[in-house]
Design a protein that fits this description.
By secondary structure, this protein is α/β, with parallel strands linked by helices. Helix content is 41%, strand content 17%. The protein is globular, with a radius of gyration of 18 Å. The structure holds iron/sulfur cluster (SF4).
Length: 172
Amino acid sequence: MAATVHGLPAAFRRALEAVALWSRVNSPWLVHFNSGSCNGCDIEILATLAPRWDLERFGAKLWGSPRHADVLVCTGPVTRLARERLVRVYEQMPAPKFVVAVGSCGITGGAFHGCYNIVGDIGDVVPVDVYVPGCPPRPEAIIDGVIQLLTRLRPPKARRHAAKAAAPGGAA
Ligand code: SF4
């Protein structure tokens, strides 16, 4: 019999992991957190999810609980008040978990850099996978950030196939 990990045959465990990855890439659940933004970026995120830009066509779903979310979409610099909450939200997410920082304030502190109540940018508090620059970034840029993350999560073979399909004259 093949070696077992966590009591499951290795082949069965690999198949389960492949299904979990396929589900995550095709239907990522997002949780949104404002760690001190002026709300400009948050309005763009909501517009991104609404029918005009329709991020949901990629399977993404905004969810109200970090306990069921795969991706933390975070805006703003991090204020003293929000720091502990940001860490708590991140820690409540099940692994593997990913962070998309939306807006210039989340990258450098932006307009709020150096303010008395700011402890830093998002990357100073939780690990960030994708940064989306802009003040605020347009919905197209936010969609691009999420798609970049999902592309990175795909297995190499699926990534090559998607790139081929996206190339001019590639398969639809
Ligand atoms: S990047 Fe611009 S819109 Fe977004 S939180 Fe900062 S100041 Fe507001």
